[in-house]
Design goal:
Blueprint: E1 8-12, E2 18-25, E3 28-33, E4 58-61, E5 69-70, E6 86-89, E7 96-97, E8 100-109, E9 115-125, E10 139-143, E11 154-159, E12 163-166, E13 170-172, E14 185-188, E15 200-204, E16 209-216, E17 220-222, H1 224-227, E18 232-236, E19 250-252, H2 258-261, H3 267-281
Parallel strand pairs: 4-9
Antiparallel strand pairs: 1-2, 2-3, 5-7, 6-8, 8-9, 10-11, 11-13, 12-14, 15-16, 16-18, 17-19
Length: 282
């Protein structure tokens, strides 16, 4: 049906809609509903609320020889709107914390009533070494029994009589669970001298003063180094060093006389007599 401007009346209803009424068409009033007014779009949703710098979980070791740890405080924690989050549970990081796991909770609330939560786990472990360091052969070790293997424990090495230490005499348990030095070795003082080749024989006495006599085989004679002492070399357990080096003990003889280069009948007897002379001298 077509309507002219003369017979159409616009009526604004209380509901806000507009009705078009045509008047006097064949004695009837006809109502035509106008299209509804479009609704405005809803306001945009606010961005999500989150904790943007939640502190990471961490493990803290106790100090040397201690059974608790003071954990450094966290930096300020903020939400996604740059508002300060509040710690709602957990220990105060300025306090000493015992060994174990501790949980800290941070909470943020915005104007819409929403909440964001983050949790940080802190583990406190006692700094200790996995076990006592080894005991060197021909030696011993002594540690503080109160500390056992806690960080800070000191252990001291010692060697048996007639043995000398090669390495550090003490070690310390570090906070990373390792010992500060390797186990030393206890080496025998005045170890048997070694002579190059098979050109002679070395006969030695025991401790505490070791005396060795180098006896050359037929066709060989004492080196210039050993000939000054008549073939004798000495080592005191207090010093642990030989008076001469026996490695080049016997060299090819420049003499043809067999009696000079032949070994003595009883070198051990000569050593015993020399020891007696030394004892008389002391």
């Amino acid at each position: 049906m077509k309507y002219s401007a003369a017979n159409v009346v616009a009526v604004v209803l209380l509901s806000g809609t507009i009705s078009l009424i045509s008047c006097c068409q064949r004695g009837r009033v006809t109502r035509v509903r106008a299209p509804p007014k479009p609704r405005p779009p809803p306001p945009p949703a606010p961005p999500p609320l989150t904790i943007k710098n939640c502190p990471p979980s961490r493990t803290v070791f106790t100090s040397l020889g201690k059974l608790s740890a003071r954990v450094p405080p966290n930096p300020p924690v903020y939400d996604s709107f740059n508002q300060l989050a509040v710690q709602t549970s957990g220990p105060n990081l300025n306090d000493l914390l015992p060994p174990g796991k501790h949980q800290i909770t941070y909470r943020a609330t915005d104007k819409y009533g929403r909440e964001a939560i983050c949790r940080q786990s802190i583990t406190v472990e006692i700094a200790r070494c996995s076990g006592l360091p080894g005991v060197p052969a021909n030696g011993s070790i002594s540690c503080d029994p109160k500390l056992q293997t806690l960080a800070g424990t000191q252990c001291f090495y010692s060697c048996d009589n007639y043995f000398q230490m090669a390495g550090d005499a003490q070690t310390r348990c570090l906070s990373d669970g390792t010992w500060s030095s390797l186990m030393p070795k206890c080496k025998k003082k005045c170890e048997d001298p070694i002579m190059q080749g098979q050109n002679g024989t070395i006969v030695c006495s025991g401790f505490p003063i070791r005396i060795c006599l180098v006896v050359c085989h037929k066709g060989y004679e004492l080196s210039e180094n050993l000939s000054r002492g008549g073939g004798y070399i000495y080592c005191s357990a207090d010093v642990g060093e030989w008076s001469h080096n026996a490695q080049d003990g016997c060299v090819k003889s420049s003499f043809l006389l067999e009696s000079i280069t032949s070994p003595m009948a009883d070198p051990q007897h000569h050593i015993e007599q020399t020891i007696k002379i030394l004892k008389l001298g002391t």
